[in-house]
Design goal:
The chain has 107 residues and is mainly alpha-helical. The protein has helices at 4-12, 17-24, 28-41, 58-70, 76-87, 93-103. The protein has 6 helices and no strands.
Length: 107
């Protein structure tokens, strides 16, 4: 696997995007994207993203959905306590409500 620095070095040696693509056997769009990113940011490293990461993982969401399907009469507070005891998730009742609304459960 080639690194982004290889593409940049080839470009600095006055080779065209087509030549680099043929030389390394990768698509021209990949070479072009990496060179554009390098020109704009000065690096090809992944930049930090905006916002906070989600508290609930996919596994936690599946467990939440399973809990709600098992007993639809539970309150958000009891669901949060149930998830804490069963899988060790420390989530608030507000997070439970938000996740349930995202899954299509209301009320």
């Amino acid at each position: 696997m080639q690194t982004a620095s290889t593409y940049i070095c080839e470009r600095l040696c006055n080779k065209s995007i087509r030549d680099i693509s043929l030389l390394l056997n990768i698509p021209q769009s990949t070479v072009s994207g990496i060179i554009t990113k390098w020109k704009q940011l000065g690096t090809t490293a992944t930049q930090p993203r905006n916002g906070r990461s989600h508290k609930m993982t996919e596994r936690g969401q599946r467990m939440l959905k399973h809990t709600v399907h098992r007993c639809r009469q539970l309150s958000a507070e009891s669901i949060a306590k149930d998830l804490q005891t069963s899988c060790g998730l420390q989530i608030s009742t507000t997070t439970v409500c938000r996740e349930l609304h995202g899954m299509g459960f209301h009320g």
